[in-house]
């Protein structure tokens, strides 16, 4: 059996879950509370982060970027990194954008402050970080909307890991009610198409103790 160690609101875990589902690869989720730093888990992934994928044959693959590259090489029937060199460059550029720049400027300031701090007992959210996160989110949603208006999918004509990377962050923020969709109609239309895909069903059914998602979270028509 294939196992994925994850946290429900980890955007990186969500990205891998979506890619696995899009490729129709069965897997079982294992909740990993990374702040506990279990020795058994650190032996699998010394960085102590999620996600980590354990393949049927025992191969251990840490880090969402490494996992997604591996999955596209090992299971190429559903190609999600692009066909040409130029396509692959653009897909990887946008993956880096969302998992790097967006994660640093938005996700860490909002999800990290409001949710992860509470989970790990590190005190109250920092008001300045929250203000910066919301301000940055507006700019990122504008860019996401621009991509969606000018391309069929974020990186071009085909859905790719770039879409799932973005959706991992957006879905986690939407779960905690941090996105005002009235301010981002083009991004909203792209996200509606994303969450209507069969691969999104399990993510939309996620529930986290102590957090109630807004009514539109699992509504395919918002």
Write the layout of secondary structure elements.
Layout: E1 3-6, H1 11-22, E2 28-31, H2 39-44, E3 52-54, E4 60-62, H3 64-74, H4 85-120, H5 127-150, H6 161-175, H7 185-195, H8 201-204
Parallel strand pairs: 1-2
Antiparallel strand pairs: 1-3, 3-4
Extract low-pLDDT stretches. Answer: none
CATH class of the domain at 85-197: Mainly Alpha
What's the count of strands?
Answer: 4
Largest sheet data = 4 strands, mixed
CATH domain fold name of the domain at 85-197: Glutathione S-transferase Yfyf (Class Pi), Chain A, domain 2
Large-scale geometry: globular
Number of contiguous helices? 8
What integer value in Å does the Rg equal? Answer: 17 Å
**What is the beta-strand fraction?**
5-15%
Percent of residues in helices: 40-55%
Query: How do the SSEs run, as a string of H and E?
Result: EHEHEEHHHHHH
Distance, first to last CA: 35 Å
Mean pLDDT: 96
Structural class: alpha+beta
CATH architecture tag of the domain at 85-197:
Up-down Bundle
Strand order of the largest sheet: 2-1-3-4
């Amino acid at each position: 059996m294939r196992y994925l160690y994850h946290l429900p609101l980890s955007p990186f875990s969500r990205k891998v879950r979506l890619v696995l589902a899009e490729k129709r690869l069965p897997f079982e989720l294992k909740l990993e509370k990374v702040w506990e730093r279990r020795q058994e888990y650190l032996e699998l992934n010394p960085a102590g982060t999620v996600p980590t994928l354990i393949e049927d044959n025992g191969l251990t693959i840490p880090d969402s970027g490494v996992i997604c590259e591996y999955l596209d090489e090992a299971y190429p029937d559903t190609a999600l990194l692009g066909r040409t060199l130029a396509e692959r460059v653009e897909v990887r550029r946008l993956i880096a954008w969302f998992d790097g720049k967006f994660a640093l400027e938005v996700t860490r300031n909002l999800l990290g402050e409001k949710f992860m701090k509470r989970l790990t007992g590190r005190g109250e959210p920092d008001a300045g970080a929250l203000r910066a996160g919301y301000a940055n989110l507006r700019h990122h949603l504008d860019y996401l909307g621009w991509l969606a208006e000018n391309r069929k999918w974020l990186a071009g004509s085909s859905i790719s890991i770039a879409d799932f990377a973005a959706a991992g962050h957006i879905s986690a923020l939407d779960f905690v009610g941090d996105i005002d969709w009235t301010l981002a109609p083009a991004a909203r239309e792209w996200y509606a198409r994303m969450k209507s895909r069969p691969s999104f069903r399990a993510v939309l059914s996620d529930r986290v103790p102590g957090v109630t998602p807004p009514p539109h979270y699992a509504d395919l028509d918002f």
